TrEMBL record:
Keywords: ANK repeat, Repeat. Transmembrane segments: none annotated. This is Ankyrin repeat protein. Signal peptide: none annotated. Pfam families: Ank_2 (PF12796).
Length: 224
């Protein structure tokens, strides 16, 4: 049985024989995330030689880290030489534009220094950075995922939010009443007629003063 190819061989073939790389990975998937003596990997090489098909398969099929670092602390984004490759890395595969190498530079900064700010990869990364800065709200959409507005109040119940003088505020709301309201609002069956009726009765009790009186009987008195 033939021995598997080495990572060095695959790195040498990626420029001219990308299909051979894909065939080798199908038989030897462990090579997908392998690196040479300098930490240089197939995902770095695929980015450098503009092999988008290989690049996508490495990350999406073989789960290679798109931010895999070489010995200089550089991810595949640092190796990109075409704007389409940089776009694929960032927008499709989720590459981190903020990674800094051993010299403390981002991919955008290093490429601008070595290739000039007119380089297409540098221009693309700058445009993405500018768009994120101009529209910070869209960049923070993930922070609000899973956050839902409170459920609507039952029919006939209205809450007016305002301010009042300290003397007019009276005593603080009874914590037991607050707990009961929050408990009802958090129930999964909040919208059912039964729970809505309980909420109406509770709010009515609070307004008329009955709720505080009832709640005080259910709260243990502190003994001095």
């Amino acid at each position: 049985m033939a021995s598997p190819p080495t990572i060095d061989l695959l790195l040498n073939l990626i420029d001219t024989r990308p299909n051979s790389i894909l065939a080798s990975l199908a038989q030897h998937p462990q090579l997908a995330s392998a690196s040479d003596a300098h930490g240089y990997s197939l995902v770095h090489a695929a980015a450098s030689y503009n092999q988008l098909e290989v690049l996508r398969e490495l990350v999406q099929k073989y789960n290679v880290d798109v931010n895999k670092l070489d010995e200089d602390g550089e991810s595949p984004l640092f190796a990109a030489e075409q704007g389409d490759v940089a776009r694929c890395l960032v927008e499709e595969l989720g590459a981190d534009r903020g990674i800094r190498n051993a010299e403390g530079k981002t991919a955008e900064e290093k490429i601008a220094e070595e290739e000039g700010e007119a380089h297409e990869v540098c221009q693309y990364l700058r445009s993405v950075r500018g768009a994120r800065q101009a529209h910070p709200v869209s960049a923070g959409v993930a922070e609000t995922e899973g956050v839902h507005p409170p459920p609507p109040l039952p029919n006939g119940v209205q809450i007016n939010v305002g301010t009042m003088a300290e003397d007019a505020a009276g005593e603080a709301p009874d914590p037991e009443i607050r707990r009961r309201i929050e408990e009802l609002a958090s129930r999964e069956d909040f919208q059912t007629d039964e729970v809505q009726q309980q909420l109406r009765e509770l709010i009515s009790d609070v307004v008329t003063g009955m709720g505080t009186e009832d709640a005080s009987r259910g709260v243990r008195r502190r003994v001095e």
